[in-house]
């Protein structure tokens, strides 16, 4: 098993940072970049073998809403990879960097990444993703993480944009009950789309749903799994609701491995303690 990191925003908040704007952790790339590096380093010290960058929430439209120019957004995307690389250099360890590519819904900052079905055209989605992908690829991460994808419609066009991509990438969906993506497609059909991806799987999904999701699908690729803590995102008030307990049992982790998961970590609500406790 390869150990992934946990929720970057969770680590940042644990270190005393307030993430109250629509850009979440992305805001700190410009205002407190050292805090981003520290959070990555905390996960590396907890045993993470792959760290995911702070670029998830960055988009040209979303950053423009915060008053950033396109050039400033370009620089933030570039910095997101560099801050992760800085943490690896400080650690002296052999750790990989995955540049985060969040879904269109994340830019809306209204919880749409947990719904899909945005009602926007294919060309609009392509325009949304194209330049950001180009910049992130230019930063030479080890991987691209196409993550928290709620809808196969969006994934199809992302894969078109990544034809002949020089960087290995994985694809992970946000999912719900019934072995479905959050937009309602079967997880098997979502897995079938994976194409040239190095791995396919699930993230920011309740841990108790993961085992059956994996068992419901057959894949010729490794599964990647990094669930959240099981809480529900209240987009209006921008808080997580539900049980404050975090983490998931070794029994669940073993079930995921038996179902084909080879890369395992955590997402929102999963901090350094939970990653440290993950069996390897």
Show unreliable segments: none
Rg to the nearest angstrom? 17 Å
Mean pLDDT: 93
Question: Strand pairing plus helix content: what structural class?
Answer: alpha/beta
SSE string: EHHHEHHEHHEHEEEHEHEEEHEH
Number of beta strands: 12
- Biggest β-sheet: count, sense, barrel? 8 strands, parallel
| Distance between the first and last residues' Cα | 6 Å
Strand coverage percent: 15-25%
Please list the strands of the largest sheet in the order they lie side by side. 1-12-9-8-5-4-3-2
Tally of individual helices: 12
Report helical residue fraction. 40-55%
How would the global form be characterised? globular
Q: What secondary-structure arrangement, pairings included, does this model have?
A:
Elements lengths: L1 E2 L4 H7 L13 H4 L1 H13 L4 E3 L7 H5 L5 H22 L4 E6 L2 H5 L13 H17 L4 E7 L2 H10 L7 E5 L1 E2 L3 E2 L5 H6 L6 E5 L3 H9 L7 E4 L5 E3 L4 E3 L8 H9 L2 E4 L7 H6 L3
Parallel strand pairs: 1-12, 2-3, 3-4, 4-5, 5-8, 8-9, 9-12
Antiparallel strand pairs: 6-7, 10-11
Helix pairs in contact: 3-5, 5-7, 7-8
């Amino acid at each position: 098993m390869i150990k992934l990191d946990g929720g970057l925003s969770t680590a940042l908040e644990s270190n005393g940072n307030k993430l109250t704007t629509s850009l979440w952790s992305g805001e700190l790339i410009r205002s407190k970049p050292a805090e981003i590096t520290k959070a990555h380093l905390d996960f590396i010290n907890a045993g993470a073998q792959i760290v995911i960058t702070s670029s998830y929430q960055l988009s040209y439209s979303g950053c423009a809403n915060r008053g950033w120019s396109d050039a400033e957004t370009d620089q933030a995307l570039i910095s997101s990879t560099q801050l992760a690389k800085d943490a690896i250099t400080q650690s002296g360890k052999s750790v990989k960097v995955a540049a985060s590519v969040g879904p269109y819904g994340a830019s809306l900052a209204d919880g749409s990444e947990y719904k899909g079905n945005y009602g926007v055209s294919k060309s609009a989605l392509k325009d949304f993703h194209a330049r950001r992908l180009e910049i992130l690829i230019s930063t030479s991460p080890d991987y691209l993480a196409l993550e928290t994808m709620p809808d196969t419609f969006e994934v199809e066009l992302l894969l078109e944009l990544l034809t002949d991509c020089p960087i290995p990438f994985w694809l992970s969906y946000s999912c719900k009950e019934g072995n479905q993506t959050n937009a309602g497609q079967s997880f098997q059909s979502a897995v079938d789309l994976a194409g040239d991806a190095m791995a396919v799987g699930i993230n920011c999904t309740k841990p108790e749903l993961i085992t059956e999701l994996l068992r419901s699908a057959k894949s010729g690729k490794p599964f990647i799994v990094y669930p959240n803590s099981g809480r529900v995102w209240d987009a209006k008030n921008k808080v997580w609701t539900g049980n404050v307990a975090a983490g998931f049992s070794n029994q669940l982790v073993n079930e995921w491995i038996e179902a084909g998961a080879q890369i395992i970590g955590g997402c929102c609500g999963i901090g350094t303690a939970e990653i440290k406790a993950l069996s390897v």
